[in-house]
Write a structure and sequence with these properties.
alpha/beta; Rossmann fold; 2 domains; six-stranded mixed β-sheet; 10 helices; binds NADP nicotinamide-adenine-dinucleotide phosphate
């Protein structure tokens, strides 16, 4: 009698030691009693392709991909989902039984699920969203907000050309503001999203003036270290509903886990605690 295979998955990055994904997936594997493993893998860009092509032969059913590989992996996957193509990056790989490697991007899904859970009264049609930042995370946020039906995205980034580039990808529902005028976007915003790394431990604070915020505006930050950024703290003082970035990290992990290990995990208090350990 042959024993069942133990499914393996992991996260590939360079560096990787800071990643919270092994804690999140490890928690779910343990609490769900699944015999499987999820490990961090530090892989230099030059070795990425070799490693990816070897993993399925070693019993891996998939992997997460993080910085700096999220774009390069698009060329290695046999095909990518529509949402990954739109975002221009892959964060989840599925090694299929037919030998094909599928790339997906679950960041936008994770962002939206976190928002819906943390601000259940927010509706996409409520009004424009102000997005600060135009890096990789902003692309996933904008794609998911437009797909959900947000009427307009007001976008501002320190390096304006990156914001203009996103407008050319996502079209005329995106309006670009100069970085020095970012505060003006907040007057009309039903939702404010910080996708910059500002406010993160070790980085400068976000200095956009927040006096335009109304208590009806929902404010969310992708930064999750610290959990309560200055942006969220100030917004809370003004009476806004706020949503921290840890939930996005947890929710974006759900589709991969379900696909690899066959059970949909819960994003609950215990999972949040495990991610923070
Ligand atoms: P990225 O592609 O490197 O983009 C960084 C963004 O921050 C750019 O818009 C950049 O503006 C801006 N920025 C950096 N330093 C700045 C400064 N001193 N002043 C003004 N703007 C500055 O990074 P990313 O992948 O988009 O990630 C952005 C943040 O989101 C990170 O903190 C990351 O940890 C977080 N994140 C969280 C989740 C989650 O699950 N919660 C998921 C993804 C990302 P320029 O274009 O002008 O450089």
């Amino acid at each position: 009698m042959s024993l069942p295979k133990i499914p393996l998955a992991g996260v590939i990055g360079y560096p990787i030691a800071h990643s919270k994904s092994p804690k999140i997936h490890g928690h779910w594997l343990k609490t769900l009693g699944i015999q499987g493993a999820y490990i961090p893998m530090e892989v230099e860009p030059v070795n990425l392709k070799d490693v990816i092509l070897t993993l399925p032969k070693m019993g891996f059913v998939g992997a997460n991909v993080t910085l700096p590989h999220k774009e390069a992996i698009m060329e290695i996957a046999d095909f990518v989902t529509d949402r990954a193509a739109l975002i221009g990056a892959v964060n989840t790989l599925i090694f299929r039984a037919d030998g094909k490697i599928q790339g997906d991007n679950t960041d936008g899904y994770g962002f939206l699920e976190n928002l819906k859970n943390g601000a259940p009264n927010w509706a996409p049609q409520a009004g424009p969203a102000a997005v600060l930042g135009a890096g990789g995370a902003a692309r996933a946020v904008i794609a998911s907000l437009l797909d959900a039906g947000v009427p307009e995205i007001m976008l501002s980034n320190r390096t304006r050309v990156r914001a203009d580039r996103l407008k050319s990808v996502f079209g005329n529902r995106v309006t670009v503001y100069d970085w020095v005028q970012a505060g003006n976007m907040l007057d009309h915003a039903a939702l404010v999203v910080n996708t910059t790394s500002l406010g993160m431990i070790g980085k400068p604070e976000l200095r956009v003036p927040l006096d335009g915020l109304s208590p009806d505006t929902v404010v969310t930050d992708l930064v999750y270290a610290p959990l309560k950024t200055k942006l969220l703290e100030t917004a809370e003082e003004l009476g806004c509903v706020t949503v921290d970035g840890l939930g996005m990290l947890l929710h974006q992990a759900v589709p991969g886990f379900e696909r690899w290990f066959g059970t949909r995990p819960e994003v609950d208090r215990a999972a949040r605690t495990a991610a923070l350990l």
